[in-house]
Amino acid sequence: MRRVLRGVALGLAIVVSAAGVVACGGGDESSAVVEFDFTGSAATVDGFDIDAKELGELIAAFRRAPGALQIAIGSGSPDQPSSDQPQSAVVATLLQSLIYERVVDAELERRGVTVPPGDRDIAETQTSAVFGDSLDGEPELREHLVSSYAAYVTLDKLLTPPPPDEATLRVVYDADLDAWEQTCVRHILVADRAAADALAAELRGGGDFAALARQRSIDTASGTAGGDLGCTQRGLFVEPFETAAWTGEVGVLQGPIESQFGWHVLEVTKRGTLTFEEARGQLEQLSTLQPFTSLGSWLSENVPKLGITIDPRFGTWDAVSLEVIPVGAKPSGLSITPDSSATTGAVGPSTTR
Questions:
Q1: What are phi and psi of 28, to 5 degrees?
Q2: Model confidence pLDDT, tens digit, residues 284-332
Q3: Best exposed site among 76, 186, 287, 338 by fewest CB in 10 Å?
Q4: What is d(CA 77, CA 65) in angstroms, rounded to the nearest whole number?
């Protein structure tokens, strides 16, 4: 999914790996200058022509706003060395953005949907947050980016299923109650057995666990929290710490216990199964898709069905990775199949630490 939608969306969201080519300064493999003629059609998307003039104007706008270009695709200069001709990778990247913009706009047109003001507001906010003042002096470029991103937001919302209702969440919760069992542990980690023995004796003699954790634990992350490791599901600790965390009596000091990290003195503070109400937050969070997840999946499924051709003056279309390959560069052969970690509506317990 990350290859479908880059984090700096805003009209350039779907640049696949071409941005990586630009960032590395690649794309123009020989020392000879590649000449571009921005006349005629640069590409065709399902019978719709993308005017090469539009591509040339977009490149020119970014040439006048190098800070925005650096933010968008990782290159501050669009041009080939010692030339006023743009880099092949920049041409391919920006042409690719126009192609995906057309795909999204066409789907909104097919559905008879216009971008609502709220989605426009989201795009305005994100544009300002990402690009800052780098678009000052280029209002037309800024408008292009805002409009494109707003369309992405609108289509993504249309494609995203509503969150599961309470009955569905309860079914998921009841299907695997063991998954919601948790143990809550605090520990103090020291470097050697002698220090651990002395620490355990002091604690059993009435020493303050939290204070001693802050003073002596070499696990500084938990030490500053009084040794608290939070509450976790099974299988998250190393052995033999895991066994102690799940079999030790609640409220009884355990240890010293050795692991590859050192020597632990630990205490289980609580153990039990989360109720549905306690688990609700995790269930709802896991059922909520990240922005553009639905749009990315839809594009991965539908773009291969479209007739997309590129004028060879500007690159070639890679039907595997669904990207524009720069003039002189070779296809990456990488697929944009969504990450296996990206799910649509699946819910379950999450790790709390």
A1: -105, 95
A2: 777 665 778 889 889 989 999 999 999 999 999 998 889 999 998 866 5
A3: 76
A4: 9
Evaluate whether 264 touches 189 at the Cβ level (below 8 Å): yes
Among candidate residues 348, 325, 352, the one with its CA nearest the CA of residue 168:
348
- Three-state SS annotation for 131-174: HCCCCCCCHHHHHHHHHHHHHHHHHHHHHCCCCCCHHHHHHHHH
Q: Per the domain annotation, does 281 fall within a domain?
A: no
Produce one character per residue of 110-140: b if its CB has 16 or more CB atoms within 10 Å, e if not. Answer: eeeeebeeebbebbeebbeebbeebbeebee
DSSP-assigned letter for residue 330: -
Helix axes 52-64, 139-159, angle to 10 degrees: 120
Q: Is 166 left (phi over 0), alpha (psi -120 to 50) or beta?
A: alpha
- Summarised one tens digit per residue, pLDDT across range 73-119 is 877 788 888 889 999 999 999 999 999 999 999 999 999 999 999 99
Asked if 303 and 195 sit in the same domain, the reply is: no
- Nearest Cα to Cα of residue 332 among 19, 17, 4, 14: 17
**Residue 62 sits in which domain range?**
18-161+288-325
Q: Are residues 239 and 269 in the same domain?
A: yes
> Residue 13 falls within a domain, yes or no?
no
| Cross-strand partners of 51 | 41
279: CB partners within 8 A, 6+ apart: 173, 180, 349
Q: How many domains does the chain have?
A: 2
Same-domain status, 179 and 151: no
Is 12:69 a contact under the CB 8 Å cutoff?
no
Higher pLDDT, 351 or 171: 171
Q: Are 24 and 154 members of one domain?
A: yes
